[in-house]
Each structure stands twice: as C-alpha cells, then as structure tokens.
C-alpha cells in the first residue's frame, strides 16, 4: 500500500515539461503522416482548419490536460521508474479516449481514418517513454564515468564485500541500492543459489557462481584473488532453505569469521516489533458465527457501489468542483483506517477542511480549517462518495461498522473487525457522535449479530432521509437494547470482553 503525501506537504503545481509539450504537438501530425501523408495535404482543401488539423488540435488540448492530471511532468527523467510508466500510459489512454470521443460526437471523425487514434497512441506513448529512458541511460552513463574517480578516493579496505545467497527480486533490488550509494561502502561481489539452472547467470550485474554448499570454496577462491569476503547476506528465497542447510551455512560462516545476516537486517528493513494491544490468550468465549447473508452481502455491495458510482457521477463532479474552488488541490482527503481482520487500508473522502498547516508551517486552529462550502458538502454526505471506490475494491461495505482510527478502537475490537467496515451503519443512525465509544461498539456488534437484508434496507432508507433532514439524534431505545444484549452475550460467554475465535487483529501485510 503506497501512502500519499500529507495535505500540507502536497505541492501540486501545473507543470509541463518542454519535451512533453513539443511531443504532444508533433505526435498527432506524425501519426497522420504515418497513416497516410495525403490526409494532411487534403485537409488544406477545407481551409485553415480541416479534419487533420481538427484532430491535431483536439488531441493537443486533451494531451496537455491529461499530462497535468496524471502529473507525468512531475517525475525526474533520470529516475524514471515503473510508476512513471503507468502514469504515462494512463495519460496516453485518457488523451486518446477523450479526443476520439469528442471528435466522433462533433464531426463523426470525417476525413480521419479510424486507425489513426491507435497509431497516435503508439506514437505519443513510445515517444514519452523513450525520451525518459534515454534520459535515464544518459544519466547512468555519466554516473559511471564519474565513478572511477570516486572509487579511487575510497580505499579498498573501507569497502564491505558481501557474498549474497539466493536470487530473488528483493536481493536484486538490494544490489542496485548498494551500487547507488555515494560514497560506496558495500560491494556485492558474487551470489550463490541452490538452483543449478541459475548458475552462470547474472542478477543486477552480479554473477551467480555456484551452490550454497560451495560457500567455503568460493570464499577461498576469492581470497586467492585478493578479495576478502566480509559478510554473507541471506535473501528471502534462501531463508526458505531446509533447516539443516541453514544450520550448516551458519557453522561455515562462524568458522570463517563471516557475519551472516538477512538482506532485511543488513538494510535495516526488519519488521518493527510492536506490543499487541490484546492479551495473547483471551478467555474462552462462545463463537459468533457470521450469517450466510454476509456472503451475499459482498455481491450486493459490488453491484450497488458500481451503480451508485455511475448514478452519482454528476454530484461527485459538483462536489469536486466545490472542493477545488473552496479548499484547493488535492480534492481528496485520505486517512489510514483499520478494516476487516485488522487489515489497514486508505479511506478516501472529498476534502472539506483546509490543510492543518499553512505555507509557513504554522498550525491552524480547527475552527479556521473548515471551509465555507465544506459544511454543505458534509451535510449532504457528498464528501463520502469516493468511499464507493473502497467498497468496489473490497476494503469496505456499504453498510457496516464505521472504520475507526487505531486510537479509537475499543479495548477488544475483534468482533467489530470480523466484517468489512461500512460507509453507514447502525451506530451512525442511532447516535453517531452523540454516543460513547462503548455504546457505539455495542451498536456495531449488535448489527453484526442481527444483520439481514431487511435491516440493511432499513439503514439505507434512513441514511437517505438523514442526508436530507440532517442533524444527529440519539435513539435511546436502540442504544439500551444493544448494550443490554452485549452484556447478556458477555455473561453467557463468561468473559468481561468479547472475542471472536480465529479473528487475527494484527495488521495484514501491505
């Protein structure tokens, strides 16, 4: 899961790289020329704005707009990465789709062959990617030319020489990482791998010279050539070796005086050990079996969220425009929440508050942050429309317990985290912010036990009515019923707090 920058630190300025502008201008003419050069010549017969020029200027407009939306000019060409490739592909696809649809509606694309958009997409995309690739190659070549002088200033005895065991993506990335270090302190000299078909091949420029069992022979041979191995790094793949092989490896390294560590430990990327907020062995309680309805509920969520995204698109555009006018970019607010089984995910909303810090770094008071139009957007719950995307991808449900921040979780939240969190729920309709955390937890757990299609329809209808009328009201009867039911359940379970066997609250791997 990739986290975005905080709102106060997000610097989004309209920027177009000179090459991107020039290529966006040249690409449509080049595509038309590749398709049939006579198309451009024939357009002159229509005046100054024939079909070819209509196509060219339309694609230019949408290209510039897409470049700004996907921010392809924000990246550094010499650090071109896969994420930049995806951004370029998204911008190209949006440009082609938008321009083709616009021209087809306005002119039926008369005078322009139907294959032109495909040729244009290939020309525009390949040019943008090729330019960035060449910039990276040129920068890499320049760095290598400067490296000998730098290497001469660093004495050989200061370089840590490493023998890598195992070939996987993490190990390859580690090699690239240490090679980029300036001044260099580590050098991966060779690699070993148990897979014979890997021997003789190279991984990020480092050759795989033999099997793991040949560690001592490889170390001795490098020593003959004047290269002393200082450390042995174990990749993720090698960590899965049989216990006897790992034990033998440890003995060999100890005999040779070599430090043996994992790649994660060497790069200080080991998992952070955190204290669990729950007891390791909770008191035994009766298990709450989730109703079969929850299996059907996921199918309903996908269908309903996709339909609502289409139906609410005009309102979403209005809300986005209001946010952009009143609060500014970015228009989306994100916050990391805890979902089903303790898995962390990013919850999205339209922004209704200004950034917590101004441009000078001064913290703003909470009452100064709420925007003028934010109250109206929040009152109509338009700010929660982006959460339909969370529902579509499976992070949330339309109806369920609201996802809470880690600090707001109850003492034992495993029951409420046994299902997907919802955009709206029973607790929101019967008190919202007016109930205590204990009462909210009771309402959420009560919903999980009594969830049904009829109850969800009731919640959905009341949510729509609530959005129209506005204002939170506490339903004392519903709260008392939920609290009393939870107390009875705890009593029957023989524990002061509830637990759901098999529900692991530890955050899932991101």
Automatic annotation (TrEMBL):
Gene3D superfamilies: NAD(P)-binding Rossmann-like Domain. It comes from Methylocystis bryophila. GO terms for biological process: polysaccharide biosynthetic process. This is Sugar transferase. Belongs to the bacterial sugar transferase family. The chain crosses the membrane at residues 21-40, 52-73, 85-106, 118-135, 302-325. GO terms for molecular function: phosphotransferase activity, for other substituted phosphate groups. Residues 297-465 form the Bacterial sugar transferase domain. Pfam families: Bac_transf. Keywords: Exopolysaccharide synthesis, Membrane, Transferase, Transmembrane, Transmembrane helix.
């Amino acid at each position: 899961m990739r986290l975005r920058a905080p709102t106060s630190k997000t610097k989004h300025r309209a920027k177009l790289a000179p090459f991107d502008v020039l290529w966006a201008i040249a690409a449509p003419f080049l595509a038309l020329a590749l398709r049939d050069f006579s198309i451009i010549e024939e357009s002159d017969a229509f005046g100054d704005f024939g079909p070819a020029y209509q196509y060219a200027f339309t694609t230019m407009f949408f290209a510039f707009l897409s470049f700004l939306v996907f921010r392809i000019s924000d990246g550094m060409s010499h650090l071109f990465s896969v994420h930049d490739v995806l951004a370029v592909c998204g911008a190209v696809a949006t440009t082609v789709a938008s321009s083709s649809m616009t021209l087809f509606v306005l002119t039926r694309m008369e005078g322009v062959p139907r294959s032109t958009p495909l040729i244009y997409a290939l020309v525009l995309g390949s040019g943008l990617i090729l330019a960035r690739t060449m910039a990276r190659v040129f920068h890499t070549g320049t760095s290598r030319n400067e490296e000998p002088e730098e290497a001469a200033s660093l004495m050989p005895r200061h370089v840590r020489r490493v023998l890598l065991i195992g070939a996987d993506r993490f190990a390859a990335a580690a090699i690239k990482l240490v090679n980029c270090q300036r001044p260099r302190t580590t050098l991966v000299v060779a690699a070993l791998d148990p897979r014979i078909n890997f021997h003789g091949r190279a991984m990020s420029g480092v050759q795989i010279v033999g099997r793991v069992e040949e560690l001592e022979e490889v170390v001795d041979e490098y020593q003959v050539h004047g290269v002393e191995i200082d450390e042995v790094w174990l990749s993720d793949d090698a960590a899965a070796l049989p216990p006897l092989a790992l034990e033998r490896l440890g003995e060999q390294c100890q005999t040779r005086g070599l430090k043996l560590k994992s790649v994660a430990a060497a790069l200080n990327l080991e998992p952070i050990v955190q204290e669990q907020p729950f007891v390791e062995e909770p008191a035994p309680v009766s298990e709450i079996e989730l109703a079969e309805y929850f299996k059907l509920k996921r199918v309903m969520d996908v269908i309903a969220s996709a339909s609502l995204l289409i139906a609410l698109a005009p309102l979403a555009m209005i809300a986005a425009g209001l946010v952009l006018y009143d609060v500014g970019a970015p228009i989306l607010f994100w916050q990391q929440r805890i979902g089903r089984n303790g898995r962390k995910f990013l919850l999205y909303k339209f922004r209704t508050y200004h950034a917590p810090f101004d441009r000078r770094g001064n913290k703003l008071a909470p009452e100064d942050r709420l925007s003028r139009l934010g109250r109206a957007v929040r009152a109509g719950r338009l700010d929660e429309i982006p959460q339909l995307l969370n529902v579509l991808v499976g992070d949330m449900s339309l109806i369920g317990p609201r996802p809470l921040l880690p600090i707001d979780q109850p003492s034992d939240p495993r029951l409420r985290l046994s299902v997907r969190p919802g955009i709206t729920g029973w607790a929101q309709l019967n008190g919202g912010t007016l109930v205590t955390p204990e009462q909210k937890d009771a309402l959420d757990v009560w919903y999980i036990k009594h969830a049904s299609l009829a109850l969800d329809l009731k919640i959905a209808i009341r949510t729509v009515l609530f959005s129209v009328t506005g204002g939170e009201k506490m339903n004392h009867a519903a709260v008392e019923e939920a609290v009393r039911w939870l107390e009875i359940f705890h009593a029957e379970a023989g524990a002061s707090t509830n637990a759901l066997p098999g529900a692991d609250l530890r955050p899932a791997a991101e």
